[in-house]
Amino acid sequence: MSMLLKGGRVYTAGIFVQRDLLIDKGIIVFLSEHIETSPSLPVLDCGGKFIFPGLADVHVHLREPGFSYKETVRTGATAAAHGGFTAVCAMPNLTPPPDSAPRLRAMALHAADAPVRVFSYGSITVGRKGEAVAPLAENAPFAVAFSDDGSGIQDEKVMEQAMREAKAAGRVLAAHCEDNTLVRGGCIHDGEFARAHGLPGICSASEYAQIERDLALAKKTGAAYHICHISTAESVALIRKAKREGVDVTCETAPHYLYFCDAMLEDDGRFKMNPPIRSARDRAALLEGIADGTIDMIATDHAPHAAEEKAGGLRHSLMGVPGLESAFAACVTALVEPGVVPLERLAELMSVNPSRRFGLPGRFGITPNAVADLTVADVTARRVFDAEQTFTKSKRSPFDGLTLTGAVCATIVNGEIVWKES
Questions:
Q1: Cα torsion at 135, 137, 140, 145 (round to 10°)?
Q2: I want to staple 204 with a disulfide (CB 3.0 to 4.6 A). Which of 56, 232, 304, 369 is the partner?
Q3: Considering the entire predicted model, what is its pTM?
Q4: Catalytic one among 99, 214, 301, 400?
């Protein structure tokens, strides 16, 4: 199928420029200041809109197999399309976990008819138990990367072996960094809100201590190391230093850490996630890391739960919130609108960098001969985010009811419109 995107500002060669864009058979074939229309050529009017390389989220929980009452591949992928994402990487905390080639193949087959591209992580350890490294070489052809997300690997020797095997297999190792001995039953950040409300806190060291350990291992092994959902100022500083020393490290943070701090919390399960929303100081450090390039990408950590699992306030709700459908607007509001970064940097954070690091379509940007995975957005629209209107099964979003700037207008995968604003 052919299609012409007319009148948009297209991200190409690192900037947004006014271009018409012609797609044919799933490939971008031509970019020009003006392309003539014809009666037989479908046209998508992109006047006043910005066209991004398809947004890519390297950290989502699709909950299937094992927890389909929370989310399914179909509902999660539909939510991703609604949020402007053309590719998502599904985390392995599932039942059974994807720790073998047959399980990873089965997941790929199940996701084949999803509206967006779904790539699966393989688990680092057998059963995600953190004890024995899974057969990473055998699993690598079927895994976008390896992670035990949801659990930090406590044993340093296991982590070192995993890094060496992931490097040999040519895959990124993505780590959930959490020292279990420092969590101590906490439910939110160990800060002023926790103390004022008598809630057990999660100290920042539970995150950054394991990051410090792993950065030393990554330097030692030469592994391609990626750090999931960083939330603390100390984490940013450690990663900045490691990059200066030449360690092959990338990292992500999530929109809720960039928008909120713990002074904005409510005693509601929709504000509970792991790691927790941290202090204003931590948020400022994350924004600085976004601006100076220390933080490479933004990922949602989309983690849906059933309504009853989020009904116990901060103390008793399960950790995790949906994020695919609020992410773009939250990032425009927290980053672009106040001038923390220009829109071009947001394209790097949400499209180019995650695609490049994890080998996803879109890593070459919008150029002729590239795959036509595209996100069309209005970056000036202001709307109240209504969680009840989302496609995910989980409606307990921290952004519910907030007025955000930026709206996805259309999502195109392989040259086909998979979601379009009516």
A1: 70
A2: 232
A3: 0.97
A4: 301
